[in-house]
Amino acid sequence: MEQVAEECVEDVVRGALHFGSGGGGDPYLGQQLVVAAIRRHGPIRLLSPETLAPDTPVLPVVSGGTPVALTEKVHGTLEARTLRSVVEARIGRECAAVLPVQLGSVNVAVALAVAAELGLPCLDTDLMRRTWPSIDMTLLRLFGYSAAPITVVGGAGVVAEFSRGADAVLGGLLRAVMPGLGLVALISAYQVTAGDCARFHAGGSISDCARIGAALAEVAPAQEAGFEPYLRACGGRLVCSGTVAELVQRYGEGWPRGVVSLRTPEGLVRLDFQNENLIVSREGAVLATVPDLIGIADSDTGALQQTVDLVTGQEVRVITGPVDHRWHTPEGLTMVGPRAFGYPVDAVRFDGAVSAGQGRSAEQGRSAERG
Amino acid sequence: MSGLRVGVDATAAVALDEHDRIRAVRHGDTPARMLEQLLTRDIEAAVIDRVVAILPDPEPAELKAGARVAVLRIGAPATTAIPPLAAWPARELAMLAGPVTVVRGGHEYDGRVSAPLDLAAVTEFAHGCAGIAGAVAVAGVHGLEYPEHERLAAALLAEQLSVPVIRGGETEALGLLERENTAVLDAAMTAAVDARIGELTAVLSARQPNAELFVLRGDGTVLPAHRARRHATALIGAARAAALHGAVRLAGTASAVVVEARSDAAVVGRVRGGLLPGAGRLREIAGIRTGVRTPRPVVVSRRQAGFPDRFGAALARMRAGHDELPVVVLGDLADEIAGVPVIRPPDGELAAVLGAATAEAAGSVDRIFWQGAGDRQESANRARRLARDAAVRAGADPRTLRETPVRAALTTYVPVPAARLQVTAIGALLQPAPVTP
Question: Terminus of chain B with fewer CB atoms < 10 Å: N or C?
């Protein structure tokens, strides 16, 4: 894919929702954001990091905050320019492209819109290969890069920087300043070159979104078999179909913990979520967990849902899909496995197999599922 | 002694007495003429308490003929990445768009003022709209919980322009774009709704000047006519909702699964305590997302293959977890429904107008509540009060209100003491009382 023009925005944003795994924000806002940007500035060029000189600096971009706040107060156009000038002043060079930090319907859209606003191409890659809730949960970080320096630009011209420190602490500090900024900010982090991006082969992110989004549009939602185009495109599987019986969230340490209960023909299915879906289990048997993707599609429309927006009585289908294999290494699981989110269970792959980084055989995982 | 209640749509007009018995029916004319005939020939001397009208859904042509809408958004310097109407479908944009601006102002989620409202810019915008815009839509950031800026700007615009000014905050929906889009579409269609309401008002003021006129919403509850003119998008789908409510009334129950068989499709829905369960979706009009929630009825087309199977699946899903509810069937649908005990009420063809004549009034709240200032119970109570107030403004008798449980969704990604709370209150319409001199 060489550019994002208005006619492919819906596919890109719809596909990005897949990588949101039940979170990552509402696709309508993302679609509106990119369409508005393209109408002002023209189609957005996509670049593979390999096409740039390895030492070329790029501008990582992510929208921080809470999705409902963004639906009220979407970014202004000024924030993108402020963010760029602050980062470029710090590194003393110009950035040649925008680098999406994460895939998700808001953050793919924000990166594309920022690229359009700045007249820069957008790299067809990203740092997470899905949505994670904290800026320190990236593949770069997995390979030893620090998230610092982090630059935060708020709507009213506020600029804050976190220059150095332990990444998890910086992630927490970042969340701590968000209320003061009205829960909406444009953020850059990591010092990254095109060569760094090329080295980690996380390429094709936006193209993947477009491809999966196009497949999602082909879904005939009334029957399970109708999801075949989507499952083929994302390499995932359909876990179950059911009715939302209950959705509860409770305040706790850190992020609110939520549970969705689904009535299915095979019994009660439980979905644990915080910002994204984390664990899907049936009658106590874990079917799949983070780091793999767990999505919920509406059975009437086929559209993937934000988990917090589910309503009781809604008919849904649960779909699990694979994620970048590096999240399944022991280091990857330490960062984003179920235990990293506070759940005392081992990681289970989207297809029920035990995650490679777990050090147990796949057979054990399958028998656990049958139990 | 209470008077009669009348329901009217494009196909029939019906008058009910206080025991919901049919006193008169009229068919085969325009709504205004059917109403006129009903009032003059059928029930002459009887007193009419109210008329509830189901207006036809707006046609695309009406949108085209509708007003040029000027849009004032309050939120700069934020929100400019998506200016008003900027990403609308090109056709609707060309039909409706008048002058558009984003002025400084708006609030944060916790009530802080993001920027003072730029009154000079509002005034200047009003000057630029004069003679061009047929209606104005105004929407502000966090304008539901903190409506001051929206109200101020709307008042200023109304002072300087003699056209309808619709505020985003008049629609209870999360999302600035959703409220703004709704206000724009409502503003564009105000005149069309006015014309339809006007025909009925003319009949009533001549024949039954004391009768109240209500219009049915897409969820099957009412709005007083003078408020309905500002909510054209909320009226869409009223006929289908009315048929579901009417079927339940005809079956003499308050809750049921309803199947409405038509020649081209079967509609499967559920009514529970006067409410249609929501689908968790917002209504889109020509690809434009509004802030109006859509009810869940499933439409099973007869034109595609495998109708009996698809219908059976839809019915099974609607009944899942509600086995105790009776199934009410309108129309002819014998084979596909075998094995399920059903109620087939008489007068099924009048279900929609009966649903209108017996409709209730509801009010909903769906917004972000800042809970930092008080405790969570307090904000839940406030949400309930707001929903009850909205139901009363829609015409409900406060003594009859029932409520749904308050639903809370906590903020993700950045945990703060704020939550999206949703609750609906519903009740019977307030009866007119004798006034002693």
Answer: C
